[in-house]
Design a protein that fits this description.
alpha/beta; two-stranded antiparallel sheet; 10 strands
Length: 304
């Protein structure tokens, strides 16, 4: 199956709700004020967010107001407008070869798919010919440490880990020293994601970053925030919260295949404009890929 087909399949829950809603609104009907409002409501329900929904509905109405329209035409027009919003943020993760190692700090709430994302990124980076090291910096959860070790074995990447409860900043320090000694290209550092204890988490992340900068004043070179699409609008709040703690440089959006809230990615692009490096549409190791705006927009609207 092509990657576009996988995206389309993965977005089925989101696209089928949008497609049937658009068909209901625009079958044998002019695009009048009431239809514009209904379209806006539908887009809000698909988690595109009120501001984005209003903007898209207005764009669709601009050329077509008071004209007879077909549902297919509306979906195609929406896909084009969504692609325009997403295009500026569709940016693959770029590893700078001048950094040895290129340090990527991976953040996100527990359950967002953070550790799995690190494993999948490691596999892709190795396939690109890069040497990779993993650091099990989520020292609060034994399961996260074990999971990262499994990914290390799967991808042939060394894993720096300590016992549960160890100091995360100390672990990051050791990992960077070892990565430098071994001339590793990329170091992926996992972090804790206990948002219920925000003050403690903020202090810990800041300490990790301070320690990284003792060894590399430009590090971390990327701070990736992993977001679970099934949380819908809550993903927007998570970006705001993590932005307070660390300078998020890019996003990875996971679990798009398990939700009718795929539109949240459009809301994220509109509100924050942060690069979206990759999206996940499944559990398999190859189900995380660089984000492509047009494919996603067409998939979201259920178009080929």
């Amino acid at each position: 199956m092509s990657w576009f087909q996988r995206i389309k399949d993965g977005l089925k829950k989101s696209s089928s709700r949008l497609a049937s809603g658009i068909t209901d609104i625009f079958t044998k009907r002019k695009l009048d004020g009431e239809a514009v409002e209904e379209l806006e409501d539908l887009l809000v329900m698909a988690d595109l967010g009120p501001a984005t929904a209003a903007k898209l509905a207005a764009e669709i109405a601009k050329e077509r107001f008071d004209k007879q329209v077909e549902p297919e035409e509306i979906r195609a027009a929406l896909a084009e407008e969504v692609a325009k919003i997403l295009d500026p943020v569709a940016t693959p993760l770029a590893v700078n070869g001048a950094n040895k190692p290129h340090i990527v700090l991976v953040a996100g709430v527990n359950g967002s798919g953070k550790t799995t994302t690190i494993g999948k990124l490691a596999k892709q980076l190795k396939a690109d010919g890069k040497s990779v090291m993993l650091a099990a910096g989520d020292t609060f959860r034994a399961a996260a440490i074990e999971q990262l070790k499994v990914w290390g074995e799967r991808t042939g990447s060394p894993v720096i880990a300590k016992d549960q409860g160890a100091d995360a900043a100390g672990l990051a320090f050791d990992a960077i020293e070892q990565a430098k000694r071994q001339g590793v290209d990329v170091l992926l550092i996992d972090t804790a994601g206990r948002l219920h204890n925000k003050a403690g988490l903020m202090e810990e992340l800041k300490k990790v970053i301070r320690v990284i900068r003792k060894l590399d004043e430009d590090g971390p070179h990327d701070v990736l925030l992993v977001l679970d699409a099934t949380t819908g609008q809550n993903a927007l709040a998570q970006v705001g919260t993590f932005q307070e703690m660390v300078d998020v440089s890019g996003l990875v959006v996971t679990k798009l295949d398990g939700t009718a809230k795929g539109g949240v990615l459009v809301a994220l692009a509109e509100k924050y404009g942060l690069p979206v490096h990759a999206i996940g549409v499944g559990e398999q190791v190859d189900d995380l890929r660089p984000f492509e705006a047009r494919d996603f927009a067409r998939g979201l609207m259920g178009l080929d």
